[in-house]
Amino acid sequence: MRSRTAVRDAGSGDFEAIRDVASAANEEFRSPMGDLLFAGYLANVLDVEPRARDAAVLVAESGAEIVGTITVYRDINTEGMPTDFPARTAGIRATAVSPSVRGQGIGTELVNAAIATARSFGSCAIALHTADCMVSAMRLYERHGFQRAPEHDFRANDFFHAGTGATLDALAFVLDLEATD
Prior knowledge:
By secondary structure, the protein is α+β, with helices and mostly antiparallel strands. It is built from six helices and eight strands; from the N terminus they run E-H-H-H-H-E-E-E-H-E-H-E-E-E. It has a single domain, classed as 3-Layer(aba) Sandwich (Aminopeptidase). Strands 1, 2, 3, 4, 5, 6, 7 and 8 form an eight-stranded mixed beta sheet that branches.
């Protein structure tokens, strides 16, 4: 079933709804990540204001309700993660779709909008990090042509201030925008 949503730039009045959607969407990762790692991960995802200053935060809106979000950085290397991608590589972060509307194509619309945003930046590629427990997200990105880039993987515990608890490997994916024109 196709969604009836519009993807648009988020405004500061959307931040609380973005946090609500992201919190609900990510709750399923609490158990596989463990409480300490999940708390650090979720705190980072819910910190919308710095992303909005440094990147394009997009929302999917159905009627008057925000049902999804995605962030696009002009330069993935400015996300603060310990990776070094080639110049002109945009970055995706904090993709979330409300659990109540999953399966309606909203994730696809958000990724399509992120790709279009990266193209408008003049990017030659767009990259992201995800995790093994995020199976649906990996399938979504792979359907859009993203390929694994293990040379950009990293252990995310330090990034999320999670210490030595459960380990989270951040798995990199890249889409070559010049090859998909």
